[in-house]
Amino acid sequence: MRNLLLGLVLLAPLAAADGVQTSADAFTRYELLPPDTHSFRIYYDVSAATPGATRYYNPIRRGSRPDVHGVYDRMTGEALEWSLVDGRDARASGLLPDADPDSQYIRVDLARAVPEDGRGRLLIDKTYEDAASYFADGDTITFTRTLGVKRNAVTLPPGYELVSVNYPSQVLTRADGRVEVSFINPGSAGVPYEVTARPLPAEPTARSTAKPPAPKTMTSERPMARLDFDIPQRAPQSRDIVYFLQPPETHSFRLYHDYEETRPGMDRYLNIVRPGSKASDPSAEILDTGEELEVEILNGSEITDRNIDIGEPVTDATELVVIWFDPVPEGGSTLLRITETYTDPNRYFLTGDEFLWDRSFGRSRNTVVLPHGWYLAANAVPAVVRTRDDGRVELVYSNDRPGNIDVLIRGRRR
Q1: Domain coordinates of the chain in residue numbers?
Q2: Which of 5, 69, 74, 413 gives a 20 to 30 Å CA spacing to 335?
Q3: Residue 399's beta-bridge partner residues?
Q4: Which residue in 173, 157, 155, 175 sits closest to 165, CA to CA?
């Protein structure tokens, strides 16, 4: 029986693992159901990250009554086996040695053991009933919950408008008309997130499709409002990138970046090297399996001779890194980790007794690790600053808004 009675103890065999449970890449979407139910559906994307683990335990928050609809392998889209267990099962697995015996968990049997430095990607679909987190006061509904996951979205019930949200958030309207707020938490502590909403009028005003008149004065670089701007929702994006700066005399930095391909049938990833940079020593793997992939560097006519469409004109100076993989299955996805070295003397160099790094970031989450023996002297864009175990300083940038951020860093020798 898949759904076990709450409180039933199952002493599971140990899941093969090198240590305690770790996870990565978590994103949660809360879809608020009718207010009188005090319930919200949760779509939880998370990756098991403990090498060798064959199970994953998702804790159930105290005070919530769960209804699990299913758990799915993100790579293939196939359903996974799961059970409701208590903390004694989690302890026995070796993954959560400090689990409270009275706590409840969703125990998931992974489709495959987590590879070294890889991921076991899951989608957990569940509904919680929690009157303390979701309730109504007259016509106003409130969702209030401390959210430890860094990336989150809350979708209002149909026919509701947003009244307030207490943390800087994007606001979008989904294709079905529901309003959704989303955010990225750049800090290390959970966010006490609170959203309030109220019913819209029974006959909402129809949206006008007429273009606005041109403004009499220009208030920005744009002469007119961006009427057809498609707002990119930042929180669900999972394209992490980490830069490891090499000695500045080399003008080089080693990097890896993750990319999830979701288009059915797609069998390649194209990375157009930024003008002024030179790529070398590329490699790639599928994080779900650890499989090493075929990688090529193509230049100019080599690209056109292979009939590869890069979405822009190809010149003699165009450089392209191509990663090949098996076509993405329907309902699944492929998570790539691409590693390469870039040399860019125009954006990373020595100036006097300092190095200067100046680069535009387009992803939502970016990390820069300074070279050994250098300390941080200046940083233009706000970042979380940490010191790694090996003594190197790292800066973590969360870009929760559309467009790029222009990162400028100066460092000095210790």
Answers
A1: 23-199, 241-413
A2: 69
A3: none
A4: 155
Q: Which residues contact 201 (CB under 8 A, 6 or more apart)?
A: none
- Tell me the pTM: 0.85
Contact 373, 413 (CB under 8 A): yes
pLDDT, residue 289, reads 96
Q: Specify the residue for token string 């009157």.
A: 131
Q: Which CATH architecture has domain 23-199?
A: Sandwich (2.60)
| 319 in Cβ contact with 270 (< 8 Å) | no
Rounded CA separation 139/72 (Å): 36
pLDDT given at position 209: 52
Beta-carbon count within 10 A of 219 CB: 8
Residue 225's pLDDT band (cuts 50, 70, 90): confident
End-to-end Cα distance, the chain = 61
Are 142 and 75 within 8 A, CB to CB? no
Average pLDDT over residues 154-167: 96
Strands 268-272 and 319-324: antiparallel
Minimum mean pLDDT range among 9-13, 49-53, 62-66:
9-13
DSSP 115: P
| Second CATH level (architecture) for the domain 241-413 | Sandwich (2.60)
Is pLDDT of 125 > 60? Answer: yes
Asked whether the domain spanning 241-413 has the same topology as the one spanning 23-199, the reply is: yes
Q: Dihedrals φ, ψ of 212, to 5°? A: -70, 155
Residue with tokens 């409270």, as numbered in its chain: 100
Instruction: Please name which of 160, 169, 164, 217 lies closest in space to residue 191, comparing C-alpha atoms.
Output: 169
| pLDDT at residue 220, as a whole number | 56
Locus of tokens 């006061």: 137
